[in-house]
Amino acid sequence: MENAQACAGERESFAEWESLLSESYVPLMADPRDEGTFHGRIERSSQPGFELSTISASGQRIRRTRAGIAKTAGEFLLVSILTEGSGLLHQDGRVALVGPGDMVFYDTSRPYHWDLDGPWSQVVVQTPLEVLLQQLGPGASPLPTAVTVSSDSAGGVVAGFFRDLARIQQSSPGHATVLAVNGIKLLASAIRLAAAEIPSDQPAQALSREQVLAFMRTRCADPSLTIDDIARACLVSRRTLYRLFGDVEDGLSAVLRRMRVECARTLLTRDPGRATATVALASGFASERHFFRAFRLETGMTPGEFRMLASSALAV
């Protein structure tokens, strides 16, 4: 169990609260919204597959920044069930207005921020995205981030479960652990229900995909380019990248390989006397052996055979 109390007039004290937020969840930044006395409290417990906490504090803005994301090793889904006060959650171009009893999801691998007024309290569930995605199974819809799940909806039943679980944790931790065994399954069900509320984003996905491809075309000749580099440059998570190219056989790595092979084909045709090792490096391959293997996979011939074929075609 952890708690923190501070005064808004004392920056170091509020910094202690910001530090506690980051230690309890993921690296975060916080700014007080109210003048006068500040108070904040967090109580946490570990359950099968997730962390359960209750948090209460004075009004503030809580921000998940790209700098904070870079400091985080894992990716998590956070689920907030408001029990007091109101707030606005901003993520993925959506804004969710959340009141008492409402539930909302947000992904720590992308920026978000909370605007929370007055005294407020939440029950928070934190689970690794990997655990959740295993439960959702292949072909799952995008996570319904910043979509309000109202207390009177079907998903509200799940919100009530976690709210009651946090209450039972206070008085009977052993009983709470027994009930928590089904927590991830219930959470996955609520996510499936909430995903139906997201407007179709196919045009946005198509635009994002073209942006990724455009970046890859300009950087594919860099042997050090990785999937993580592409994700950071395009301001998306690895999971989003894989989803955008989920219909491509062998995924995004195959797209990058084909771009590099196409670059090599151009160099081999344009400069027949250029050494194969130099072509490999200039096309983005880390080694000549890797280049030969990828080239044969994509074209059905070796670079030397392709060069001879290209030279014969030019001579005709």
From TrEMBL:
PROSITE patterns listed in its UniProt record: HTH_ARAC_FAMILY_2
Transmembrane segments: none
Short name of one Pfam family: HTH_18
Residue stretches making up the HTH araC/xylS-type domain: 210-309
Presence of keyword Repeat: no
Keyword annotations of the record: DNA-binding, Transcription, Transcription regulation
InterPro entries per UniProt: AraC-bd_2 (IPR035418), AraC_XylS_family_regulators (IPR050204), Homeodomain-like_sf (IPR009057), HTH-like (IPR037923), HTH_AraC (IPR018060)
MF (Gene Ontology): DNA-binding transcription factor activity; sequence-specific DNA binding
Keyword Transcription: yes
Origin: domain of life: Bacteria
Protein name: AraC family transcriptional regulator
Originating organism: Nocardia alba
